[in-house]
Design goal:
globular, six-stranded parallel beta sheet, 219 residues, binds adenosine-5'-triphosphate, single chain, alpha/beta, Rossmann fold
Length: 219
């Protein structure tokens, strides 16, 4: 049995403790060998990030210093082409081989938006999906199918409700809701607080805050 690899993509504009706890609690709950943290370059389905890919990459690297279970993958941030998760997963599937379980880690908000993603139905052939609760988004993970769009619910009904063991015994295709400490932290909240001149200390690592302040980001 091969230990699963977690994949956490995002704009990380900036990275914060919501992201880091998601990675850490998924590691424990799903027995992940490693999680790849993948800052996007040009995200195709959302607003253009406020900061350059290079800054978001630098902040991600600062945030995970001294944590060997998380590795920053710079490929999307360094690419000039739009960041599509399906292409990233194809690349990682080729790198890790057909048998290795890959687990895409998503917050509840990101999961609910899946049908807007490029070639989203193909994601299930490439990876499992683990969905974490997120304050302000549909109540409990186990009730997602009732609250989702029809397309997503239809696609997910046979895959939904896997347990952590199933994620280890197959390479892709199952959906596992999991509970994490609810943290009502978002990058947009942090950007708004900074723009208003308010403190964001303890919402994100000090090293990331130092980088933001010394580079005059989000001011
Ligand atoms: P923004 O506020 O700019 O939309 P964000 O805080 O949602 O940003 P992203 O980079 O868009 O951050 O998120 C990357 C991934 O992390 C997504 O799957 C998202 O659902 C998840 N995530 C972010 N914050 C949390 C949180 N507080 N709890 C659970 N999941 C989270």
């Amino acid at each position: 049995m091969l230990a699963p690899i977690g994949i956490l993509g995002g704009t990380f504009d900036p990275i914060h403790y919501g992201h880091l706890r998601l990675a850490e609690e998924a590691r424990e709950a799903l027995a992940l060998e490693q999680t790849l943290l993948i800052p996007s370059g040009q995200p195709p389905h959302r607003e253009v990030p406020q900061t350059a890919a290079g800054d978001r990459l630098a902040m991600a690297r600062l945030a995970i210093v001294a944590n060997p279970s998380i590795v920053v993958d710079p490929a999307e941030a360094e690419s000039a082409t739009p960041s599509y998760s399906v292409l990233t997963l194809e690349r990682l599937r080729a790198k890790f081989g057909p048998a290795r379980p890959l687990v895409l880690l998503l917050g509840a908000d990101a999961f609910a938006g899946l049908p807007s993603w490029h070639r989203w139905r193909e994601l299930f052939a490439l990876a499992h999906i683990a969905v974490a609760n997120r304050p302000g988004h549909p109540p409990h993970a186990r009730r997602f199918p009732e609250t989702l769009s029809q397309a997503l619910a239809a696609e997910c009904s046979q895959r939904f409700g896997a347990n952590a063991n199933e994620l280890r015994t197959s390479p892709a295709g199952r959906i596992l809701p999991f509970d994490m400490t609810p943290l009502a932290i978002s990058a947009s909240l942090i950007r708004a607080q900074l723009a208003a001149g308010h403190s964001v200390r303890y919402l994100l690592p000090d090293s990331v805050l130092d980088y933001i302040l010394s580079n005059h980001l989000y001011a």
